[in-house]
């Protein structure tokens, strides 16, 4: 992983439970499923991401000598348990939705089948990896839908909640359809295309705006984009037009100009007119500065002549919905289905599969959450990806994941593509409901309701 991985990226209670499981002989096969209970406001669909990092974590999970030394010095665990951790490996199976798959509430996006201590221990990091990238990919997908045909670039590292978050946000947004990122580490780690222009400080450091543009152009002539809103946006556009012939004589075309403040639509229209009148019809306009999907929708509906957008804070923090009600719950142990019945947090028991139906034109029209043994029309979304602790195929190419996400977004019901409120139908099958009701009857106690979840 980025900067190295530690087995201590976990919650203490995972180690506490592992130790207790071993002391009491609870080591039979367990099945856990990772899912989202309910969708947050403003998210009528989600895009799965983070599976690659999750599989790498499982395949390489080890307790290092430094990890073991720390736990030994704490004194919470005995020598036998620490010896077990020294040899610990994940040996289980994983079934999952491929990255880029659209999914909805109550649908398992990943299933872990492993000896109980192993399946329990990996919970925290699996949620950490899949939850975050899914949050970002889902936000990015909305922006892609809001600005069709426009190039979107991740500018968000500086506002991300940590370096790993910034790099993984670049990856997740690229899967969802962004054109690239400004985060150099993401380019190095994943081969994501890198984009960068200049900051206002570069312009301010010069005695005049034209001198700043000329110096930057001669230093960075390739894909030259000039920032024009440090002082007066339209006047700077005129200066770009006047400068363009001199740079052209040196073989330096002006690829674009960037606007980072003010009414972006109004500025873009005036700048477009200035550039076109000055013969710079192929010079693109890039806009940035506090953008989210609502503003992108507004600009799209206005027909603003903006060719590309740089998206920062609202992407990497997913500011309107930064967390999902994500859970990783025990659904079967030692061959017996298990069901949590906590108020407002009841689970559907057993190993499950998700089936997706499509209409006559290929649009998704409804999902079915079923027990694993059931068969239903449509496409099964959970696939084997790891067996006996080893992945079944090489890491998926990002181009393949982007293509899947693009196809998934294209097949959304039209209201979702327009980012309009829409409740996508997700059916819970009768056998699954009957299993939940039977488990409730078998485990009901005094004063407890035996009503299954709705």
Automatic annotation (TrEMBL):
Alphabetically ordered keywords of this record: Glycosyltransferase, Ligase, Phosphoprotein, Pyridine nucleotide biosynthesis, Transferase
Catalytic reaction list: 5-phospho-alpha-D-ribose 1-diphosphate + nicotinate + ATP + H2O = nicotinate beta-D-ribonucleotide + ADP + phosphate + diphosphate
The record's account of how the chain is modified after translation: Transiently phosphorylated on a His residue during the reaction cycle. Phosphorylation strongly increases the affinity for substrates and increases the rate of nicotinate D-ribonucleotide production. Dephosphorylation regenerates the low-affinity form of the enzyme, leading to product release.
Electron transport found in the keyword field: no
GO molecular function, one term: nicotinate phosphoribosyltransferase activity
Domain called Nicotinate phosphoribosyltransferase N-terminal: residue spans: 8-130
Residue ranges constituting the Nicotinate/nicotinamide phosphoribosyltransferase domain according to the UniProt record: 152-332
Pathway(s) this gene product operates in, as recorded in its UniProt entry: Cofactor biosynthesis; NAD(+) biosynthesis; nicotinate D-ribonucleotide from nicotinate: step 1/1
Gene3D superfamilies assigned: Aldolase class I, nicotinate phosphoribosyltransferase
EC number: 6.3.4.21
Protein family per UniProt: Belongs to the NAPRTase family.
PANTHER family recorded: NICOTINATE PHOSPHORIBOSYLTRANSFERASE
Protein name per its UniProtKB record: Nicotinate phosphoribosyltransferase
Organism: Chelatococcus albus
